[in-house]
Amino acid sequence: MSSKGSVVLAYSGGLDTSCILVWLKEQGYDVIAYLVRERPRCLLVSVCLPASAQVASLSAHCYSFKPGFSSLKPGDGGVSAEAPGALYASWPLSLPTSSSGFLFPQVFIEDVSREFVEEFIWPAIQSSALYEDRYLLGTSLARPCIARKQVEIAQREGAKYVSHGATGKGNDQVRFELTCYSLAPQIKVIAPWRMPEFYNRFKGRNDLMEYAKQHGIPIPVTPKNPWSMDENLMHISYEAGILENPKNQAPPGLYTKTQDPAKAPNTPDILEIEFRKGVPVKVTNVKDGTTHQTSLELFMYLNEVAGKHGVGRIDIVENRFIGMKSRGIYETPAGTILYHAHLDIEAFTMDREVRKIKQGLGLKFAELVYTGFWHSPECEFVRHCIAKSQERVEGKVQVSVLKGQVYILGRESPLSLYNEELVSMNVQGDYEPIDATGFININSLRLKEYHRLQSKVTAK
Amino acid sequence: MSSKGSVVLAYSGGLDTSCILVWLKEQGYDVIAYLVRERPRCLLVSVCLPASAQVASLSAHCYSFKPGFSSLKPGDGGVSAEAPGALYASWPLSLPTSSSGFLFPQVFIEDVSREFVEEFIWPAIQSSALYEDRYLLGTSLARPCIARKQVEIAQREGAKYVSHGATGKGNDQVRFELTCYSLAPQIKVIAPWRMPEFYNRFKGRNDLMEYAKQHGIPIPVTPKNPWSMDENLMHISYEAGILENPKNQAPPGLYTKTQDPAKAPNTPDILEIEFRKGVPVKVTNVKDGTTHQTSLELFMYLNEVAGKHGVGRIDIVENRFIGMKSRGIYETPAGTILYHAHLDIEAFTMDREVRKIKQGLGLKFAELVYTGFWHSPECEFVRHCIAKSQERVEGKVQVSVLKGQVYILGRESPLSLYNEELVSMNVQGDYEPIDATGFININSLRLKEYHRLQSKVTAK
Amino acid sequence: MSSKGSVVLAYSGGLDTSCILVWLKEQGYDVIAYLVRERPRCLLVSVCLPASAQVASLSAHCYSFKPGFSSLKPGDGGVSAEAPGALYASWPLSLPTSSSGFLFPQVFIEDVSREFVEEFIWPAIQSSALYEDRYLLGTSLARPCIARKQVEIAQREGAKYVSHGATGKGNDQVRFELTCYSLAPQIKVIAPWRMPEFYNRFKGRNDLMEYAKQHGIPIPVTPKNPWSMDENLMHISYEAGILENPKNQAPPGLYTKTQDPAKAPNTPDILEIEFRKGVPVKVTNVKDGTTHQTSLELFMYLNEVAGKHGVGRIDIVENRFIGMKSRGIYETPAGTILYHAHLDIEAFTMDREVRKIKQGLGLKFAELVYTGFWHSPECEFVRHCIAKSQERVEGKVQVSVLKGQVYILGRESPLSLYNEELVSMNVQGDYEPIDATGFININSLRLKEYHRLQSKVTAK
Amino acid sequence: MSSKGSVVLAYSGGLDTSCILVWLKEQGYDVIAYLVRERPRCLLVSVCLPASAQVASLSAHCYSFKPGFSSLKPGDGGVSAEAPGALYASWPLSLPTSSSGFLFPQVFIEDVSREFVEEFIWPAIQSSALYEDRYLLGTSLARPCIARKQVEIAQREGAKYVSHGATGKGNDQVRFELTCYSLAPQIKVIAPWRMPEFYNRFKGRNDLMEYAKQHGIPIPVTPKNPWSMDENLMHISYEAGILENPKNQAPPGLYTKTQDPAKAPNTPDILEIEFRKGVPVKVTNVKDGTTHQTSLELFMYLNEVAGKHGVGRIDIVENRFIGMKSRGIYETPAGTILYHAHLDIEAFTMDREVRKIKQGLGLKFAELVYTGFWHSPECEFVRHCIAKSQERVEGKVQVSVLKGQVYILGRESPLSLYNEELVSMNVQGDYEPIDATGFININSLRLKEYHRLQSKVTAK
User: Fold this and answer.
1) D429 at interface of B, judged by CB pairs closer than 8 A
2) C62-110, pLDDT tens digit by residue?
3) Spatial distance between the Cα atoms of B397 and B340, rounded to a whole number of angstroms
4) Where does the Arginosuccinate synthase-like N-terminal domain lie (chains A, B, C, D) (predicted)?
5) Which is nearest to C385 in space by CA: B151, A168, B354?
6) CA-CA distances (angstroms) from residue D298 to C19, D43, D284?
7) Beta bridge partners of C408
8) Could you tell me which chains touch chain C, where touching means 3 or more CB pairs under 8 A?
9) What is the DSSP string of C86-126?
10) Contact B360 C360 (CB under 8 A)
């Protein structure tokens, strides 16, 4: 059978995308698996494949933008110079093969963690982006980041197709595909979970397991939780399964990124977070003096501190783009601290009326990100405007992190619009109290007119 | 000296308004003191007057809308049937007199606690009202409630003037006066802190103390905190003094309405809060079965539970209406629980697009309340619209209250728009996955066109 | 062949829907043709069928809500008492038949003109609804009106299907179908122009003509314009064909509802339009005293006057819901006059801040109507809020209509918020000019603070 | 008497500011008169002073930023090289003197016409700025332009005061003063019409006339209209006097900038207006080939054409910033053409969703300009964002100007997002009609859910 062409598959290493990978080959496509690494230190945890699986010519095609990655090949120890610790302890990398041998023509492993933080999370922090007043958009932000890289690979490799394992009822399919179409309109997306020939064949997990067994796809040995999870550097979501009943409480053992607040330490960590242009540039642990100054490191450090203190859990019902309500439980540790700290330094340094306009733009931004329109003219426009508003959002915020909560303790800034003398109750400053009389009187003019009319109407 | 007429003074019993009271008499006004009671159980705590002070004809003019109040007179024990506990333990009511005798022509004691909850706090809960993303508007909501009653008394008593002790730099002066002018445009407001003849005479606390001593005004014996406080049933604010430096952390002993979260109980209280039309109608403590069903009682109970667990503290810099930034520390215990619980039941029962429009109205509402425009045509209009949006916001939310945090555990509703079958990952339901393909394709059309243009532009 | 069930077809009498009608029968459906009459006096103009066509049992199923319609039957003269003039001059009603005889099981002729005006156009006038700042939404408003009735018939007749002739690239398909699904979720829509078996068979007008000839469908004898038109009581649109080139100017003979402004009368008509609750209740021609007081009549009269003077033409490029830009030329005679007159009386009677909030709601309303969401929870909500805002929009506006323009000449109202004495340059009234000083000073406070910061930043 | 210091007076040459000028001298100020010229060719029309008046040392202090102005001195012919025509025909400049001689220490004549067009009118055109849906903001835009220059002179000359003749009930006082305080917070504004010592002395026009006579101030000989006027390069406003009754129609002879539409030419002028970055860069009269390419010239040419055809008249009731409603009649000839032409080219080239966000910003911009906040952080921010949105608003619009109306005839652009093939009714293009089915179905999902709930509720 002649090939239908190449397809770049967003491959997670889980059962679904492993089966999709083999199925795509069955359908006649050359498959390029693309493993995204927006989560440093936990890249391959979910792959869980036996070392015996065969992988062909991995090193030959391995893209990498970090020094430590360039020479990875099967059998390597996989420790990256850049991210200390047991980064690649799970190597030698083992990927599924068909029983007959070479499964993959190509595998790309992309480290997008830094660009995820700087190009996606930072704008969200600047925007104070909350979807429907609660959701910090952890998954939504990751999707355009992943899909952008996927398109990049497709373009470099001359692949006409991209594929993903997102379901047909969710938001992720939209986020993936709108990104693809925005950046490469001619690309074709293969979404198996929306293709009757796929979803009629694989009606449940058992069908996938059976298929995996037949095709030598390693099957996860850990028992599956009765809910689904999706994790990245910023957050983790839990949904489906027993959580579909919105009254069911989250089971105790569900959470993985944050400690149970009831069991968290009894003493807070006190952090000083420094912002420049609305973005954190330095985090200092006041007690032990620990300091982090690069985006990725400080974000990971905040994840660690917040996680230890149980910060960032929510349980919500939200409105999906396709129009249904769904229930999700999320953990967003570092994001939660930064949301609060940024709000505070922004309020301290930004003019009231600019803030009000920016608040409206932030609402729009959150909606656009949630619905998958990151790569759209309107989202580009909104990001530009919000970035403009952040030019003078600069200063330090002191926060206490304790038992699931983030408390603002104080703030300082060289660019503050706060005027201690002006606001003082003890000092008059340049302020003339009599002016307030005129201000109030003029503001009441319209109200008095309205009262006049009401009296007239009532008199009738 | 013939009288200049009657003035109804919003009298708190503190040093400032006690001095203003005497000063107004000096200026030739007949003063009607008006003590507002929007805080059940703590009405007269702040008055702190010696029993020897003489009060004339109090009972004759005492307005009351609650049964237990109608027969109050000097010397009464002051226990109200309606609000159990040591409500009036501080009676006999003792109010400042001049050394020469009768100070007051009239005193009105108004219990507005129920109307404060039902007519002011409930609409704020329905609106999810947050000023500048953080402030639940505790003080802002109380002002129009107090001023409305003050105007009512002025109208009944034929007083042409009202007076208050608010400073000339704050928001409260605006909130008081806009309410007065809205409801009674012909009324004149006397704001001593904006009158040079007053503020030049009383340049600091010492001047007031001296004046009080001279005029037999009882002086608070408790040492004054180095900050100012303002409390009502919903919240308490701390500002000024040492808090004026926005970097200074709140001193440990500052908080009065909530327990230190670090010292709060290690086990949560689990509450079930039931809403109807967006308003709480029943609170049940799941553990001990305690239940409250009237607005005032359930609100006070939530204050108690939240206070015990340290819920509702914030430290913010906000933008005052008159244009300066100020720093405030607030506690809003019950309000914080209700904010979260209401958000949840609303998201569960309200259509996505209605919610988005209502969110915009809620932002407007918060701004109007903060700036003192409660009694304005636009705020009336917004309240009407928001109330309309709440008609089907009904159901029960389970929350856990622990260590300063409120966690949503689950929710149920007879009017939910959540469809468990539709959203299920395991059941297809009526949903056709193929429709999502068309949905995404059409949504991408515009993005593809934009890409086409960009390519054209770049090609040039 | 056993029937697949009944389908209610929105039938215009034109070539497309006539062919669709026959094609649906071919496919095995029982067809109920539904002719909507939202344009009084021109109901059947477009049918143009030969008198020889056979129609079965029409009278038996003819619904009618107007007295004059109840006894219509084939062969009747068809003059309605209610709408004088040559209303049914084209009767006996002749509808297409197959050569073999009975084509229609049923025909419904619905007069929705009054409900179109009162339930759809009036709310749009109250909202000052303009899509993208220019389009008065003439077509958009008609669609939910037509589709609602179509669903009503389907429900009464037990039909499971509805069908329409809208194209697959336009807005109308969305408007029709969202209305159907909103009101009757279980209904199935048959949209032939989106079905490959239909659009691959009928690739152009010639294919339709050929098919019509084969099936005895009467073919319009008038030569088709090189553009398409869609008309209703409120407006007419011209698009497609030679107008698809956005640079091409409208040909001189294109317009049908309005006179060429250059050739319009040299003297204006002066109208006095009276509003109550934001809706016109009386129109008087000041010169000749003509008066109209019912909604339908006054709207038709305004169409006549505006049309005579060339009022209501626009040529725009707009953004369709599905994401493409299209070019349309529209005439909306009465709607244009009412838009301007209503703006004026609203500005005269509505509080400034209420107006600003209502303006935002009106923008949302326009978007919802354009995109087909008339029958949606959010549009219901917005209409409710806007109607509330109109309670006191009452009074008379004098307008001059001349050469394509509507000029406001003056206005009066018993509920105006305009205060001639207050605004007078000659009378001081209650106004204290000194108050403006305080007002300005307080408003400048924030600006001065911003300047202070800028100086500080620059100084660095 | 020693001088109180220098005051820069915005001097119009009319009775009011002439009297203010002398009065300020009386009060002990050194007065610097500042005559603004934002209206080329009609600078001194309103001065109307007899040639015999003495003016001292004018040339010595005459600022000018245009080459042609630098050498102006009393007695000069005053023809500017830059603005051909009878620009300074009224020279020698004659300004009021006291009978005793030197009235003015200094006179500054500033030509701000180009910066008015480029820095103030162009951003308004880009913003499609309309206050309350109708007013093109002609006066509002001029004020910050005038006041900015006034502050500039004050700063150069070391004057601590600025003064203006705006009334205490209007918007202009706010616009002047907020600009002053924004740009120079330490400056003091002297607003005589808000000072009791001034307005109690000059209670009406007669008092001013008397004063003028006493002080040798030339009195305008032309009879004053029973309304007041204010003109600049962009527009003219008529208000007050007989126009204060909102029912009174504008008298026939009132208009000065536009021809009566009824008497305007019977044949249109056809213009092609070319935009780049949302700003007009070229205007061509299609009939006679006249072309203008500089901002000032093309704007003046459009004023001429629009004026000839009676374009740009409105009669409105608007809401002033200080809270009262006022009635104004305005002419904005060129602005009206540009508003329409810009809307059209913007719709043609801007993405739908960007447009929607920009529309919101434009509404905000209009409000800020109207209320005098041009020089504010929020207005700067909004202008920046709007300018960003205009980067690709480029192309040519053809318009017809006739009898008071502007008709769009067609448009073209190298950066259009319009895709003729995509939208075509005859060509399928890349478009898949079947996608619309999915799009509609998914959009209906939410509506069906809402219907399901309603049925459930009703069933109860």
Assistant:
1) no
2) 322 233 333 333 333 333 333 222 222 222 333 444 443 334 656 677 7
3) 10
4) 7-36, 107-218
5) B354
6) 55, 19, 9
7) C399
8) A, B, D
9) STTTTPSP----BTTB---SEEEEEE-HHHIIIIIIHHHHH
10) yes
pLDDT of residue A36: 75
Say how many C-beta atoms besides its own lie within 10 A of residue D356's C-beta: 16
Answer whether D168 touches A (CB < 8 Å).
no
For the sheet with A29-37, list strands across it: A106-111, A29-37, A5-10, A161-163, A188-190
Distance from the Cα of A349 to chain C's closest Cα (Å) equals 10
Both tokens of residue C11? 């039938």
Does B98 qualify as catalytic in the annotation?
Answer: no
pLDDT at B2: 75
- Cβ neighbors of C3 (< 8 A, separation 6 or more) are C28, C29, C30
Percent of chain B scoring above 70 in pLDDT: 83
User: Higher confidence at residue C203 or residue C390?
Assistant: C390
**In Å, how far are B202, B299, C281, C318, C339 from C130, measured between CA atoms?**
58, 45, 22, 12, 9
Walk across the sheet containing B188-190 and list its strands: B106-111, B30-37, B6-10, B161-163, B188-190
> How confident is the model at residue B14, as a pLDDT?
78
Non-local (6+) Cβ contacts of B258 within 8 A are B306, B307, B309, B310, B311, B312, B313, B331, B333
B272 three-state secondary structure: strand
* Residue D8 CB neighbour total at 10 angstroms: 30
Position with higher pLDDT, B35 vs D413: D413
- Judged by a CB distance cut-off of 8 A, whether residue B169 touches chain D is no
CB contact at 8 A, D396 and D388:
no
Number of A:C CB contacts under 8 A?
74
Cβ count within 10 A of residue B152: 17
Q: Which residues of C touch A352 (CB under 8 A)?
A: 446
* Chain C contact present for D316, CB below 8 A: yes
Closest CA to A366 of A136, A150, A54, A97: A136
D449 interface with A at CB cutoff 8 Å: yes
Are residues D173 and C436 in contact, defined by beta-carbon separation less than 8 angstroms?
yes
C-alpha to C-alpha distance for B260 and B84, rounded to whole angstroms: 27
Which residue do the tokens 């093309």 mark? D298
Global confidence as pTM: 0.92
Hey, what are A104's tokens? 């993959």
Contacts of B405 (CB under 8 A, 6+ apart): A261, A403, A404, A405, B311
**What angle do helix axes B205-214 and B15-26 make, rounded to 10 degrees?**
60
d(CA B127, CA B382): 9
C291 beta partners: C284
Q: Are C249 and C243 a contacting pair, CB within 8 Å?
A: no
Give, in degrees to the nearest 5, the angle at Cα D410 between D408 and D415: 120
d(CA C224, CA C15): 11
pLDDT digits (tens, 9 = 90+) for C295-351: 999 999 999 999 999 999 999 999 999 999 999 999 999 999 999 999 999 999 999
CB count in 10 Å sphere of residue C77: 10
CB A9 within 8 A of CB A23: no
User: Using a CB-CB distance cutoff of 8 angstroms, which residues of chain A are in contact with residue B378?
Assistant: none
**Tokens 């697009």 map to which residue?**
B353
Which residues of A are catalytically annotated? 16, 143, 172, 228
Joined together, the tokens standing for residue C193 give 């122009």
Rounded-to-integer distance, Cα A73 and Cα A109, Å: 11
Tell me, yes or no, if B163 is annotated catalytic. no
* Domains in chain D with CATH codes: 6-231 (3.40.50.620), 242-412 (3.90.1260.10)
As to burial, measured by CB atoms within 10 angstroms (0-12 exposed, 13-18 middle, 19+ buried), residue B221 is exposed
In sequence order, what are the beta bridge partners of D135? D131
Indicate which residue of B57, B98, B228, B400 is catalytic. Answer: B228
